[in-house]
Amino acid sequence: MKIMVAVKRVVDYAVKIRVKPDKTGVETTNVKMSMNPFCEIALEEALRIRESGLAKEVVAVSVGPTQCADTLRTALAMGADRAVHVDAGTANVPPLSVAKILRALVQAEQPGLLILGKQAIDDDCNQTGQMVAGLLKWSQGTFASKVVLDKENQKATVEREVDGGIETICLDLPAVITTDLRLNQPRYATLPNIMKAKSKVIKKVTPEELNVELRPDIEIVQVTEPPKRKAGVILSSVDELIDKLKNEARVL
Ligand code: AMP
């Protein structure tokens, strides 16, 4: 079985986000970019499945500008066998377009599993996995915190984190899985593997070659900083707190 993993290049989680002065988006010039943390978890899960002998190949895919090749090099250094870069230039590619691109790649590559992060930490959409599962008419296990494959019966048992606890579902393969934070601890790429990954070939395709039209179905009107939080106050007693909650905040 082949596993396809979608990895997105995003502003590094440790960077303090700055809004561009013209409020058209978030500043990305001279900003450290990395693989989306949930995508690292998705890749780690695919590598563990391959290492357990249940899959033969892990293919990493990224959609976006030329620099996505760096994210794919990281994926190769972590252990992916192959990488595909869908070069979308500088266009902002919304989740539905990414989902259509992934559908086209899935139809070409025929993986048994498509693993994605549950969300990208730049737009926090949490949509792509669900959309591609819908487009492919595949079963989906979102927010996975545990994945067990039964290759013989072509099934996957997925524990998923829902509001009230953990829900366990059984999926028919092929399926789409999106990863939650507690699924695993991704590995670091070692220096020798980083060096080896430099010489690996990354296949490049365009959305047009996959017959996907990049339609901007989301218009970003303005991006602004959240309002600054006001300083807190220290109260002298519980009675004062209750009084404030009742009469000022009006939550009691
Ligand atoms: P989102 O729906 O935008 O929150 O993204 C959820 C997941 O979809 C991400 O964690 C990735 O696995 C995948 N994804 C979204 N956008 C891209 C992209 N441009 N390239 C590769 N994977 C993506």
UniProtKB/TrEMBL annotation:
GO terms for molecular function: electron transfer activity. Residues 23-214 form the Electron transfer flavoprotein alpha/beta-subunit N-terminal domain. It is found in: Mitochondrion matrix. Coiled coil: none annotated. Signal peptide: none annotated. GO terms for biological process: amino acid catabolic process; fatty acid beta-oxidation using acyl-CoA dehydrogenase. Keywords: Electron transport, Mitochondrion, Transport. The keyword Transport applies. GO terms for cellular component: mitochondrial matrix. It holds the Pfam family ETF. InterPro entries: ET-Flavoprotein_bsu_CS, ETF_a/b_N, ETF_b, ETF_beta_N, Rossmann-like_a/b/a_fold. The electron transfer flavoprotein serves as a specific electron acceptor for several dehydrogenases, including five acyl-CoA dehydrogenases, glutaryl-CoA and sarcosine dehydrogenase. It transfers the electrons to the main mitochondrial respiratory chain via ETF-ubiquinone oxidoreductase (ETF dehydrogenase). Belongs to the ETF beta-subunit/FixA family. Heterodimer of an alpha and a beta subunit. This is Electron transfer flavoprotein subunit beta. It comes from Carex littledalei. The lineage of its organism: Eukaryota, Viridiplantae, Streptophyta, Embryophyta, Tracheophyta.
